[in-house]
Structure formats: C-alpha cells, structure tokens
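Subject: Re: docking follow-up (zinc ion)

Dear J.,

Thanks for your patience while I sorted out the input files. As discussed at Tuesday's group meeting, I've set up the holo structure prediction with zinc ion included as the bound ligand rather than trying to dock it afterwards. The sequence and the ligand SMILES I used are pasted below, so you can double-check that they match what you have on your end before we go further.
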Amino acid sequence: MPLLNWVVSHRRMSIGLGGLLIALHFPAAGQDEAVWKGKPCAVVLTYDDALNVHLDNVVPILDSLGFKGTFYISGFFPSFRQRVRDWVSAAGEGHELGNHTLFHPCDGTVPGRDWVRPEYDLSLYTVGRIADEIAMANTLLEALDGKHTRTFAYPCGEMRAGDSSYVDEIRKEFPGARGVGERLEQIDSVNLYDVGAYMVNGQSGEELIRLVREARGKHAMLVFLFHGVGGEHSLDVSLADHRQLLLFLRQNEKDVWVAPMREVVEYVRERSRQ
Ligand SMILES: [Zn+2]
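The structure tokens for the complex came back this morning:
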C-alpha cells in the first residue's frame, strides 16, 4: 500500500468524534479526504490588479482572521505605484505579492478591448518581450518582499504573445500560474501552469460559500479570483458578501486549508515527489 494511502486510511480510522462534528458542517467525506495538508479541501483567495480596496478593505479583514491572500500585482498601475509602502506592509503580514506583469498587456483585437493601449497590446508582443517584462516584474516584487519565488497570473487569462504561447517562459520563472478557467482542481491532475479560478462578480456570500462546500465534497482546490471588493472595479463583490465568505472559512478552518497560491502550489509539487 502506498505510504499516502496508508496514512489516509489510518487517519480515517482515528477521526472518531472529530469526524462526527465535521459532518455537522459538511456531508460525509469519502476517500482521500485529507489530501490538502491534512484537510479535505484548499481555498486560495486571489486579488488582481493591485487595487486600493485590496489594501483598505481586504488586507485588514484577512489579517484580523489570520488568513493570507495572494495579490497579483501589475507594477505600472497607479494604485501600486502610489502605495508601495502599503504593499510592502501587506507582504510583511505574509500575503503573497504575485506577478501580474508590469503593464498588464492584453490582446487588443478582442471585442470590447478599447481600453488596451497600442503599446501594451499583447497581440503585438513577442514572447521575448513578455518574458523580459515578467522578469522585471519579479525583480520589482523581490525588492519589496525579499522572496525568490512567487506565482504568476496571466493578464486577461491570455497565454499567447502575438501568435505564440508564452507558457514555457512562465515554467522557467515560476512554480505555478493561475488561469481563468472556472473549475475545481484535483491534487493529482491540476495543471500548475493553468490553475482554474472562479471570477467573482456580484455573487452573494451564500453563492461563494456554496463553491466551498462543493470543493469540500470533491476534495478539491478552489481558487477565488477577486477584483473589486467594495468597489473600484467593474468586476466587484460587496464588502458584506466578501466578509460572509471569509467568516465561513474561519468557522470551518478544520476542513478548509486557506493559503496563498505559492504555498498551495509548492505543497502540490512536494506531494507529487512522494
Ligand atoms: Zn488583471
């Protein structure tokens, strides 16, 4: 019997009363119930585009509940450049400053992309250019948080510069990268260079919690992708709904491993080597 299966099966035998209490919150768990660092599921809270509301609304409540999030930073955004010290403070609290490039290039040929400036049109980039930009974003973030590793999030979820994929460049620089495909991920099949994520835009707290319950039932990893939290972006969630989700995660922390993307990705890698 593989070591992991042995541990899981023996662990289940010893759950006892704890398992009964867990069942009050969630349906009964099946096999592989503790694959996420001893818990049945993992939740990653990601926040894109270095918004002011992340510093003003999100970091304080994460800190108050003891959660660490991942903030995907584009270095050129004013809300990053004008508040560098606040981002350093957030990193000091243990939050991940993820790489989201310097200039957030997206494909300007996609309908509705009038906001893409010609100089940052990803359809006109080369792979070498996006690779250099991402490397410089890493240098910038390392100067702020002193970390040698972090994860990446593809701007607009796009993985091509011009007509070529730049995913191989991401593999060289990062342990993992978040995509935008809406799916839960299994620990044995997740593509670490296209980790699925649920874009949050107007959902209620209950709807967000329902996803956590689903992840628990499927022993999966669930990544939330936030932009605005209480405003500042067209993709937005209310403060109350965001808070409701976080309080649920806190109340159920015995069953839900909440960690930054870097930590979860490194855990998946470590486990795959066993
Ligand atoms: Zn973005």
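A couple of observations from a first look. The chain is about 40% helix and 15% strand. The chain has two domains: 1-34, 41-272.

Let me know if you'd like me to rerun anything.

Best regards,
T.
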